[in-house]
Amino acid sequence: MPSAVVAPSLLAANHGDFAQGVRTVEEAGLQWLHLDIMDGHFVPNISFGPQVVADLRPLTKLHFDVHLMLTNPDRFVAAFAKAGAERLTVHVEADHDVALTIAAIKNAGMSAGIAMNPDTDPQRLLPYLDSVDLALCMTVFPGFGGQAFIPSALKSIQFLADERTSRGASFRLEVDGGINLDTGRQCRAAGADTFVAGTAFFKAADRSSFARQLTA
Ligand code: DX5
Ligand code: ZN
C-alpha cells in the first residue's frame, strides 16, 4: 500500500483568495493539493478552470491532484497539462473513451487516475486499474463540499483494495467527500491511503495535527 497522503481540497477555501488557501495547505506541512474542476453539467455546480490552476502553479511546489468532474474530460487534458497539473483524475461515468483519455493524460506527462461515484459498480474500474496510478472512490455524490460521508462506499473501497492486492498493483486508493477523522479511519481500515479533505481540513483548529491524525 502506498504511503498515506492528505490532499486538502481547495474547493473549501475562500474562492476570492485561492493563494491564501494554498499557503494554508503549505503551512500545515502537506505536499498535495486537490483541485476540483466542475462544469455544471457532469455535476450540478461550477467551480473553476485551468486558468486558476495555471495562476496558482508559480506560487507553490504542492502536487496538483486535479479531479475533473466534466462531461468531456478528454477535451481538457492539454489545457490542464499546460496549466501545470501533475495528476488528472477522470470519471468512469463521463462521456468519453476512458482508455484513450487515460493514455492522453499519460502522454501529456501527467499521472492518471480513474474515479467512480458512490453508486457506480466498482467492477467498472477493472479494465483501467493496470493503466492508472490512482483510483478515486467518491464517498459523496460529487458537486459540493460539506456533504455527509456515504458509508456504503466502504464496500467499493474494500473491493478496490482487494483487487490491488490480488493484482500485486500499487495504485493509490483515494477517497473524497465527507472525510473527517472518523470517516477517514473507516476508509483507511478498508484500504484507502489518499485522503481528500475539504471542509474538515479548512475548519480544523490545528490543521497539521488533523492531517497527522488522519494518516496515523
Ligand atoms: C466533491 C469534491 C470534493 C469536495 C470534498 O464534489 O470532489 O473534493 O471538495 O469536500 P468535503 O471534504 O467538504 O466533503
Ligand atoms: Zn474532489
Can you give a write-up of this model?
The protein is α/β, with parallel strands linked by helices and 216 residues long. The protein has a single domain (5-215), classed as TIM Barrel (Alpha-Beta Barrel), CATH 3.20.20.70. Helix content is 34%, strand content 20%. It has eight helices and eight strands, in the order βαβαβαβαββαβαβαα. Strands 1-8-7-6-5-4-3-2 form an eight-stranded parallel sheet. α2 (50-56) packs parallel to α3 and α6 (181-190) packs parallel to α8. It starts with a strand and ends with a helix. The model has no long low-confidence stretch (mean pLDDT 98). The protein binds D-xylitol-5-phosphate and zinc ion. Residues 9, 34, 36, 67, 176, 196 line the site of zinc ion.
The helix-and-strand class reads alpha/beta
Bound molecule types: D-xylitol-5-phosphate, zinc ion
Q: How many alpha or pi helices?
A: 8
Domains, number: 1
Largest sheet: 8 strands, parallel
- The 3D shape can be described as globular
Name the poorly predicted regions. Answer: none
* Distance between the amino and carboxyl termini: 14 Å
Quick one: CATH class?
Answer: Alpha Beta
Keywords, please?
34% helix, TIM Barrel, eight-stranded parallel beta sheet, binds zinc ion, alpha/beta, binds D-xylitol-5-phosphate, 216 residues
Which secondary structure elements does this structure contain, and how are they paired or packed?
Layout: E1 5-8, H1 18-27, E2 32-38, H2 50-56, E3 63-69, H3 77-83, E4 87-91, H4 98-107, E5 111-116, E6 134-138, H5 153-167, E7 172-176, H6 181-190, E8 194-197, H7 199-203, H8 207-215
Parallel strand pairs: 1-8, 2-3, 3-4, 4-5, 5-6, 6-7, 7-8
Helix pairs in contact: 2-3, 6-8
The site of zinc ion has 6 residues, from strand 2.
